[in-house]
Amino acid sequence: MSLAEALILGVVQGLTEFLPISSSAHLALLQSMMPGFSQPGLLFDIMLHCGTLVAVVLYLRKDIKWLLASLFSRSKSGTSPSHQHGRKISWYLVLALIPTALIGYFGRSWVMLAFTKPLAVALLLLITGWLLFGTRFFRQPGKGVEGMRRRDAILIGIAQGVATFPGISRSGATIATGIFAGMDRELAARFSFLASIPAIVGALILDLVRIFPLSSESEGLIFYYISGTIAAAIIGYFALAILFRLIRGFGLSAFAYYCWGLGLVVIGISFLSKGL
């Protein structure tokens, strides 16, 4: 791996982790197209996800502060509607994590297999496109925190678990699921990204346990890894800002055409490479 490759992959991770076009699909496809690309183990992928985790925590820092204040407030303000809503969202985030963890744990072998199958990634990108396109038919504004139900959180958790497959956009699947459940677009997006924080942290811990101790080759590339991580964090922060602006204005359906186009291109390349 070169510094240029690390920076390119960091930028791509930052852009595609939050825009609803599947970061895993782009990383898998891009790495397959880089001549002679190789990385020892999973450390680089883990660090890229750490970069985008930092981005989402910084961008949603006010929401996180609100949730923590709602949970730990001992004053009379703890009974205010704002604090009650905060505790409700906190409980629903825990609820959403359960199906995510179950799907991630029991489906891991299938997910790893899909990463090696560009055609499977392409087909899943087409599915993501249909999910995004479907959001245009749901009226807005939808329900707010007071109208949110346990079922909504569970459905978003399921969508987040399914999105571990490359080609299914995590942000696209979870936000679309929230919109299909009747939630306001911005609430669906905020809940989606808040739900991603414990899911990403849990996945990172499991992966870190698997890779230690580090190989000498990984240690030799640590500067490149850190560079890619910083790129992912910076680009990811601005990608989040862009996404929320688009959600307030145009919605998600425009990204469907990108997912369809990329999926069809990959399908075409797959068939041509096999001489069909």
Short description:
The protein is mainly α.
In angstroms, what separates the terminal alpha carbons?
33 Å
Radius of gyration: 19 Å
Structural class, please? mainly alpha
What characterizes the major β-sheet? none
Written description of the protein model:
The protein has 276 residues and is an all-alpha fold. It has one domain. It is built from 13 helices and no strands. The chain has helices at residues 3-18, 23-33, 43-59, 61-72, 81-106, 108-114, 118-134, 150-162, 170-180, 185-211, 216-220, 222-249, 254-273. The mean pLDDT is 85.
Features:
13 helices, single chain, 276 residues, mainly alpha
Task: Please specify the SSE layout and strand pairing.
Blueprint: H1 3-18, H2 23-33, H3 43-59, H4 61-72, H5 81-106, H6 108-114, H7 118-134, H8 150-162, H9 170-180, H10 185-211, H11 216-220, H12 222-249, H13 254-273
Helix pairs in contact: 1-2, 1-3, 1-12, 3-10, 3-12, 4-5, 5-8, 5-10, 7-9, 7-13, 8-9, 9-10
